[in-house]
Amino acid sequence: MEVVRGPGIPADSLDDLVDRPGSGLGLRIARQVARAHGGELLGESPGREGHATTFVLTVTR
Fold this sequence. Notes:
This protein is α+β, with helices and mostly antiparallel strands. It contains 2 helices and 3 strands; from the N terminus they run E-H-H-E-E.
C-alpha cells in the first residue's frame, strides 16, 4: 500500500486519475499489471487528506 499525504481523492475518481493524460504512467502501469494477474488497483481517501493506493492480487495454491 502506498500512502500519499495531501488533498484526498474520492475512491470513485481513481479511474479518472489513472486515465487522465499527463498524470504519469505509474498508476496506469500498476493497474494493468494487477489486472493481468487477476487483481485490481484500489484507491481509498479517508476524510479530506491523504490517499492510499492498494495493489491487490489473489494467491491460489
